[in-house]
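Milestone 3.1: sequence recovery, worked example.
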């Protein structure tokens, strides 16, 4: 058994233990009746810019809601927050809603937060990289599995007819170490999120060569999901949340400087030059910042194919079960978003 196969097995086993214990072994805490949107984000990421914009620009207050944001500290950790009743909304990788539901916790996705599997290929100057076939024979610096910095290049290689376990070497590193590994020659290239892509370009003299997410197409990479119970018991809370996200996504596309303003406030340790360098990558042909919060079946299928292809899903659950667009569609109509 390869190390990556063991990693996948361990990841899924851990997900099962977490969701299963919380679904069946602990009492369900009743939802708070106060009109505060209690949000659990996986980690503090630039990908979640619509959420931060909604908070910073007062869009929750405009909907008659307070907002309380907490950072869970990992991609799967917002699920326990929802199931214990300490949060109402989870903002994290969409696949986490599938894994939790497969274990018996009825989750539904209600808003799109990131519309692209936003992983970028960064190399030293002069290296050619024009597509996934160029991963062949390379050492790739990534974060630890199941980070998308690992799974997305692996999936792209599969799509290009390569075997990620034999045709490339994955150098799995802790946070903050990928760019240095490319700069000092331990890796040929790195696959990274923002802000790392722009840090590489502005501080390490590296080049951002390829957007894997644009090649894969629109996808509901990060979403907001809730328990089905919340949509039935507090639909006005869910609607107000989706309205706030829609207002934020509209504003971000109308004025990209809002992205810079909010990002500078939310990430004060990130050099403003890095944020400015990153801005165009959030608003490309396949934008990371969605144009509206609705989730299309195509976006769902792209994400599911990706996650299933790299072994991070416990089940293949259908769009019709896992997505409730009714709130996002009303929000999009309210704010004139197509």
């Amino acid at each position: 058994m390869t190390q990556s196969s063991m990693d996948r097995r361990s990841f899924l086993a851990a997900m099962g233990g977490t969701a299963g214990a919380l679904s069946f072994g602990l009492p369900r805490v009743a939802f708070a009746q106060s009109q505060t949107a209690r949000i659990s984000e996986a980690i503090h990421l630039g990908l979640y810019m619509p959420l931060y914009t909604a908070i910073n620009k007062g869009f929750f207050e405009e909907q008659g809601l307070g907002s309380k944001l907490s950072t869970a500290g990992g991609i799967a950790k917002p699920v326990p927050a929802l199931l214990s009743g300490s949060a109402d909304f989870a903002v994290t990788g969409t696949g986490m809603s599938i894994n939790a539901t497969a274990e018996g916790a009825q989750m539904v996705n209600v808003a799109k937060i990131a519309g692209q599997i936003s992983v970028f290929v960064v190399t030293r100057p002069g290296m050619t990289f024009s597509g996934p076939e160029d991963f062949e024979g390379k050492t790739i610096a990534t974060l630890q599995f199941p980070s998308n910095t690992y799974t997305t290049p692996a999936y792209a290689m599969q799509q290009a007819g390569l075997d990620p376990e034999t045709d490339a070497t994955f150098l799995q590193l802790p946070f903050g170490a990928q760019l240095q590994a490319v700069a000092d020659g331990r890796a040929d290239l790195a696959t990274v999120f923002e802000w790392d892509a722009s840090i590489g370009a502005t501080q390490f003299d590296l080049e951002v060569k390829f957007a894997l997410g644009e090649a894969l197409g629109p996808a509901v990479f990060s979403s907001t999901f809730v328990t089905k119970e919340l949509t039935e018991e507090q639909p006005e809370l869910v609607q107000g949340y989706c309205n706030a996200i829609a207002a934020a996504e509209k504003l971000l596309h109308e004025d990209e400087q809002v992205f810079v303003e909010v990002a500078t406030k939310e990430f004060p340790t990130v050099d403003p030059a890095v944020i400015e360098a990153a801005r165009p990558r959030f608003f490309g042909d396949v934008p990371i910042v969605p144009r509206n919060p609705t989730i299309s079946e195509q976006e769902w299928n792209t994400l599911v194919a990706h996650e299933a292809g790299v072994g991070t899903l416990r089940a293949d659950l259908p769009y019709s079960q896992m997505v409730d667009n009714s709130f996002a569609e009303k929000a999009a109509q309210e704010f004139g978003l197509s």
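The domain at 120-216 is CATH 3.40.190.10 (D-Maltodextrin-Binding Protein; domain 2). DSSP finds 16 helices and ten strands in the chain.
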